[in-house]
Structure to design on (313 residues):
């Protein structure tokens, strides 16, 4: 008797094999967890899925309920990823003040790891000499009291433009209302653009600026989407939702625009069209002129890291 495998039978066979592999991985992880040191209490998880379904549609309320049942530290398994939930201020103090070096690095999802560029940023990079250098520059050039006072007129101009945008839009779209969130985000975008690059990045008459704004918004949305590979690392190489591919495409497009901004500044400096004193220098000037000791920090910030820092900021 001959057996002919149809495409549907082949599909179900592949699904069964994949399910069997995931079950074996789950059993192996459970055995490994049983042999490790004592872990905080937590609810028992479902096979393969762990506690993902237990969180429900309002995870913040679920975590409050879990705190009353299990205490200030709750151990969850989201897919095959072990997760420790800190549910009290005292536990957070103990964790992040007295064990800060062990817990200071941020957990990155798979889309944030694309291209390996995260270490060039202060928000995503791992703690170390380079991160401390970026923090020192950011504190001095962005968050110091002097810089905040010096940039007050700049922020005032951006707010005035925001009010004008809303007023013009309200006159043109009086029946449909105004999308305030987009204008507020664009205004904040311009504040950072002026602090870092001494220019507006969003302007109705500037196609490149608006392209930068739109691409950055799309990139932010992609990196925030739920990704199966974040909960089941075995799937990271398959990229089942195509999020890593889309992230890389958008990131390359945005970095090309950032690079054009930086190259434009270099041309202005070479041609002598732009002369700034210390009071007028923006963050891009500081980063381009940075000179490190070449030991625990680089002698210069590379073009690649400069682009990434500007993009993420």
């Amino acid at each position: 008797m001959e057996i002919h495998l149809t495409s549907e039978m082949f599909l179900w066979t592949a699904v069964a094999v994949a399910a069997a592999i995931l079950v074996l991985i789950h059993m192996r992880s459970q055995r490994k967890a049983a042999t490790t040191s004592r872990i905080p209490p937590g609810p028992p998880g479902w096979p393969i899925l762990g506690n993902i379904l237990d969180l429900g549609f309002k995870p913040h309320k679920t975590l409050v309920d879990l705190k009353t049942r299990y205490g200030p530290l709750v151990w969850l398994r989201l897919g095959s990823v072990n997760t420790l939930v800190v549910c009290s201020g005292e536990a957070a103090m103990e964790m992040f003040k007295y064990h800060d070096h062990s817990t200071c690095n941020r957990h990155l999802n798979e889309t944030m790891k694309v291209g390996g560029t995260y270490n060039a940023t202060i928000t995503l990079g791992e703690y170390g000499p380079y991160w401390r250098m970026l923090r020192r520059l950011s504190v001095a050039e962005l968050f110091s009291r002097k810089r905040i006072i010096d940039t007050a007129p700049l922020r005032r101009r951006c707010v005035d433009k925001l009010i004008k945008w809303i007023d013009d839009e309200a006159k043109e779209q009086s029946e449909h209302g105004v999308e305030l969130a987009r204008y507020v985000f664009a205004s904040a975008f311009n504040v950072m653009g002026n602090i870092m690059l001494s220019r507006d990045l969003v302007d109705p008459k500037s196609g490149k600026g608006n392209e930068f704004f739109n691409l950055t918004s799309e990139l932010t949305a992609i990196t925030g989407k739920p990704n199966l590979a974040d909960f089941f690392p075995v799937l990271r190489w398959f990229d089942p939702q195509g999020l890593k591919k889309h992230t890389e495409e958008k990131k390359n497009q945005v970095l090309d625009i950032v690079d054009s901004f930086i190259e434009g500044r270099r041309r202005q400096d070479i041609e002598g069209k732009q002369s700034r004193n210390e009071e007028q220098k923006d963050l891009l000037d500081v980063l381009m002129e940075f000179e490190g000791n070449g030991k625990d920090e680089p002698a210069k910030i590379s073009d690649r890291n400069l682009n990434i820092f500007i993009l993420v900021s």
In short: Strands lie at 73-78, 81-86. The first strand starts at residue 73 and ends at 78. The first helix runs from residue 7 to 35. Confidence is low (pLDDT under 50) at residues 1-5.
